[in-house]
Protein: Fur family transcriptional regulator, ferric uptake regulator
Amino acid sequence: MESRIERIKKQLHNAKYKLTPQREATVSVLLEHEEDHLSAEDVYLLVKEKSPEIGLATVYRTLELLTELKVVDKINFGDGVSRFDLRQEGAAHFHHHLVCIECGAVDEIQEDLLGDVEQIVEDRWNFRIKDHRLTFHGICSRCGEGNEEKE
Amino acid sequence: MESRIERIKKQLHNAKYKLTPQREATVSVLLEHEEDHLSAEDVYLLVKEKSPEIGLATVYRTLELLTELKVVDKINFGDGVSRFDLRQEGAAHFHHHLVCIECGAVDEIQEDLLGDVEQIVEDRWNFRIKDHRLTFHGICSRCGEGNEEKE
DNA sequence: ACATTAACGACAATCATTACAATATGATTA
DNA sequence: TAATCATATTGTAATGATTGTCGTTAATGT
Structure:
């Protein structure tokens, strides 16, 4: 999808940042791994495959920049690293995650689901919600197969 | 509340762990700061006030142990540190948080609110939920006072 | 093409967390 | 009571992720 990267390019320019080859390479890696939840190191290694001269610090800086522009979201699943996840284009809010405590797989939920809950929180706590993070920990469908003991 | 620490003592014993003075001091600091969201370092400094001989590693291990026993929950608000939060006694699930992006305050929501959402996730994604993390980022009631521009 | 200045790359520094190895504690049993 | 065994603790070293520094490079506007 070429238009996608074009639009990100525009976002950068609007915010007065340059689109350097390194940044372009980093964004394109993220696009190619939209399903995954890559750590900075992961991104670094992947970008290095196409642009071997790139430095780790640059990747960190680029990811920080993209986070600031809300192109990606930074998440933390409790292992020691931050992970970066492309935000769905035009999505009002960040999507949710299912983390399997058996196999470690991370699945995404694009549906909002929190509409009612957010309304309640805004009203009852008088809190103006700008963003959210929702992660469920449990057993994924693949690992739960067969052994259906109700706990 | 003395019975609270007594019950934690029992939990430890049931899991075949001892309640050493260091562990007791750590738990009591957590109880005295139930409202806060202390990092391991914070806990260390506070415990040190009453038990100056305690080592940082011991605090880390104790917090890890308490996390395993589900006495505390480990959370991460995106700054580089893990924070530890006492779980409400008897609470089925971990409570939620409101993080103010203006003043940094962290408030808690004890109400579950996710019942319906979890039912949907369990059914539709065939995912057996064991735990969750829900954090809202936005403007807290104190910071939102007065300037009520609808964004 | 040229100057300005943001961006880069390599590496050092920092900060949180974990690993290690030696010592201490405390219960159990001879 | 003393020997034994397992677990816990301590201080410190090691690790691993992330950030800072600084001299160099290259993107952009004229």
